[in-house]
Write a structure and sequence with these properties.
By secondary structure, the protein is of the alpha/beta class. It folds into 2 domains: about 5-110, Four Helix Bundle (Hemerythrin (Met), subunit A) (Up-down Bundle); about 110-305, Rossmann fold (3-Layer(aba) Sandwich). The chain has helices at about 5-15, 20-40, 45-60, 65-75, 85-115, 130-140, 160-170, 180-185, 210-220, 255-260, 295-305; strands at about 120-125, 145-150, 175, 190-195, 195-200, 205, 225, 270-275, 280-285, 290. α2 runs parallel beside α4. About 40% of the residues are buried.
Length: about 325
C-alpha cells in the first residue's frame, strides 16, 4: 500500500499543482525514496511489491509526461539486493543520484541552447517550459538582448507564467492571444518551445497548439527549436508504442453554467498534440543539439529497448 506522501504527490501531479516535466520527475523520485525509507516490509518480495504499487499510483497521473515513467524506470529497473536493507539502500542511492543529475541537466541544456540565440533575437514561446527558459536565462547572462512574444496558451494560460519568468529575467515581453501567432511570426527569429515527450522518430509531443504553431513557423521560414532534457525521450516508442494523449476535464474549457446555457454539446480538451519531425529544426538537450532524425540514436544509447515496465504487476 503506497504511503500517504506517495498519494499526496500523485494527487498534486494529477491536479497540476506540481507541473513541469523536471519537477514532476523529481517529485516522483522523491516519493519513491520516501516509500522505500518508510517501508516496514520484512522480505524482499514484499518490499518490491510496495515499490511497484507506489510507482503505479504515480504513473497513472499524467500519461503523456514521459519524464514521470522515466524517473520510475531509473529508480526501479533491475533492482539489486538480496535483503530488504540492500534493496532499500539501492533505491535511496538511485533516487538521490537521479535528483542530482536532474538538477544539473537543465543548466547544461541552458548553456547549449543559449548558443543558438543571438544578440537582438526575438523569440516566440508557447505554454511554459523551464527548459526553454533556461536557454533564455543563459543567453541573457551572456549579455545578449532577447525579446519575447508569448502566447497565452489557453485553456490554463500557462503563457502567463512564462511572461512573468521572462520579466524577472529582464526580457521585454509582448503577450498575445493564441490565435494571433501567425500575425506576429514575421517579427520572430526563433520559435522556442519545450516538450512533454519526444518519440523515437523525432516527433515532439507538447502542449496543444504547438503543432499548428510549427506549421505556421515553417510556412514563414522561422526556425522552431525544442528545448528538452533527455528525460523527455519516450523509450517505449522504440518498440512501437504510441504516446497516449492526455484528455483533461471540460471544466478547464467551459463553466457548468455556460454549458447548461448553450445546451447539449460535446467538449474535448486534449492537453497535447504531436509535431512531426519535418517541422522541427533542432532539439536541444543537456547532451547537445540534435536534428530530430538523430534522436533515435540518443534514445537507444540512454535507454536501450524497453520491454516490461518495472512497475508492472508480476505475471
Amino acid at each position: 500500500m503506497p504511503i500517504e506522501e506517495v498519494e499526496e504527490t500523485a494527487e498534486a501531479i494529477e491536479t497540476m499543482e506540481i507541473r513541469g516535466a523536471a519537477t514532476i520527475a523529481g517529485a516522483a523520485a522523491a516519493a519513491l525514496e520516501s516509500q522505500a525509507a518508510a517501508s516496514e516490509a520484512t522480505d524482499p518480495e514484499a518490499f518490491e511489491a510496495e515499490l511497484r504499487a507506489a510507482a503505479r499510483t504515480l504513473y497513472q497521473t499524467r500519461p503523456t509526461a514521459v519524464s514521470l515513467p522515466n524517473a520510475l524506470r531509473f529508480v526501479l529497473q533491475d533492482l539489486e539486493g538480496a535483503t530488504v536493507e540492500e534493496l532499500r539502500e539501492t533505491v535511496l542511492t538511485r533516487t538521490r543520484k537521479f535528483r542530482a543529475d536532474l538538477e544539473h541537466a537543465q543548466e547544461r541544456l541552458g548553456r547549449i541552447g543559449a548558443n543558438r540565440l543571438r544578440d537582438g533575437d526575438v523569440i516566440m514561446t508557447h505554454c511554459h517550459s523551464t527548459d526553454a527558459l533556461a536557454t533564455v536565462e543563459h543567453a541573457v547572462d551572456a549579455g545578449k538582448d532577447i525579446e519575447a512574444i508569448v502566447k497565452e496558451t489557453r485553456p490554463r494560460n500557462q503563457g502567463h507564467i512564462t511572461a512573468q519568468r521572462l520579466r524577472e529575467l529582464g526580457v521585454p515581453v509582448t503577450l498575445i492571444v493564441d490565435s494571433a501567432a501567425h500575425r506576429y511570426l514575421n517579427d520572430v527569429d526563433h520559435v522556442l518551445v519545450g516538450a512533454d515527450s519526444i518519440a523515437a522518430d523525432g516527433s515532439v509531443i507538447n502542449k496543444i497548439g504547438t503543432s499548428g504553431l510549427a506549421v505556421n513557423a515553417r510556412d514563414r521560414g522561422t526556425p522552431i527549436v525544442v528545448a528538452a532534457q533527455t528525460i523527455k525521450l519516450h523509450p517505449g516508442t522504440l518498440t512501437g508504442h504510441t504516446v497516449e494523449i492526455e484528455m483533461r476535464a471540460e471544466s478547464e474549457v467551459i463553466s457548468k453554467a455556460d454549458r447548461e446555457k448553450i445546451g447539449e454539446i460535446t467538449v474535448k480538451n486534449p492537453a497535447f498534440d504531436v509535431t512531426p519531425p519535418r517541422h522541427v529544426d533542432a532539439i536541444i538537450t543537456e547532451r547537445g543539439q540534435y536534428p530530430p532524425e538523430s534522436i533515435v540514436s540518443l534514445m537507444r544509447e540512454l535507454y536501450g529497448d524497453v520491454d516490461e515496465e518495472p512497475w508492472a504487476e508480476p505475471n
